[in-house]
Amino acid sequence: MHIHAYEKVWLAASVLLILFLLGSVTYGAVGPGIAMVSDGESAIDPGGIDEDERFSEPRVEQVGETEYEAYVVARQFGFQPDPIVVPANSTVTFYVTSADVIHGFEVAGTNANTMVVPGEVAEITVETDAPAEYGIVCNEYCGAAHHGMEGKLEVVSQSEFDGGRNGGDGE
Ligand code: CUA
């Protein structure tokens, strides 16, 4: 079959266009920019959370004088630990990951709000002030019981926290 030169040009152009499209889709999927939720944190295997040293035991950990880290796992349909207990007047960084599907992590009534994507570790830092109780809600549709997926954040006095309300060994 004879192909016109003119037609060859169009053929070549359309192949280039397809390659460009594939390339840009691939770039969009694996290139920079997709890491918006992970915020630089290393990725995690959602199926291996029980073996992960950060998340096998969801907890609140003291890392500085008034600095704490909370390791939180979201899964259908709740958050661990529940409640999350943190001391008043401190800086708490939440590291939140999902064991199954996409969830949300929103401390109701505050601007602490992030998407929780399996394979990613979302990070948000909050400053706590006076003791109070907050609801934690999932704001991403995650299945049949999504509307009932909630947790609790308890900001307690330092002495109450030290008294073992963090659910751990009270360190
Ligand atoms: Cu979890 Cu909606």
Summarize the structure.
The protein is α+β, with helices and mostly antiparallel strands and 171 residues long.
List keywords for this structure.
2 domains, Immunoglobulin-like, alpha+beta, 171 residues, binds dinuclear copper ion
Helix content range: 10-25%
CATH class type of the largest domain? Mainly Beta
Structural class by sheet pairing and helices: alpha+beta
Shape: elongated
Oligomer: single chain
What are the bound molecules?
A: dinuclear copper ion
Distance from N terminus to C terminus (CA atoms, Å) equals: 81 Å
CA gyration radius, whole angstroms: 23 Å
Please characterize this protein's 3D structure:
- With 171 residues, the protein is α+β, with helices and mostly antiparallel strands.
- The protein has two domains: 1-36; 46-167, Immunoglobulin-like (Sandwich), CATH 2.60.40.420.
- The chain contains two helices and ten strands, in the order αββββββββββα.
- The strands form two sheets. Strands 1, 2, 3, 5 and 8 form a five-stranded mixed beta sheet that branches. Strands 4-10-9-6-7 form a five-stranded mixed beta sheet.
- The chain is elongated, with a radius of gyration of 23 Å.
- The termini are far apart.
- Bound molecules: dinuclear copper ion.
- Residues 77, 103, 138, 140-142, 146, 149 line the site of dinuclear copper ion.
